[in-house]
Amino acid sequence: MLTISQVSEQTGLTPYTIRYYEKIGVLQEPQRKNGGARIYDDSEVSYIQCLNKLKKLGLSLEEITEFTREGCVIDKIQHGEKLSAVKPTLHKRIEILENHLKGLEAKRQEIESHISLALEKLNLYQELIEENIEK
What we know:
With 135 residues, the protein is mainly alpha-helical. The protein contains 6 helices and 3 strands.
């Protein structure tokens, strides 16, 4: 069992973020010691690492909440649950990721447009300097 500080070190999330995920329902409340300190087992740490990966993908907390609503599908399958039982969850996750990818693609096109414009300006300014040097 790990403390919130140890989980923070392992996951890269601050204790504040872990408590916040708990508060908004992205993360279930963990067990507590007699003094009230949170303690986490390995499966909870793995789940928090999964949440962190989803956040690094750029998913919003709302998307992460929806994505993880049914818990860890892989764990369910590994513990004997039939694929047919988790299929709706998989479809929902696919939908979330496809929509997110569309948004990322739009951002990429916007960034490529900005890069193109910056390169045009850079070339123009370099040409102006070169013309001035030659005169």
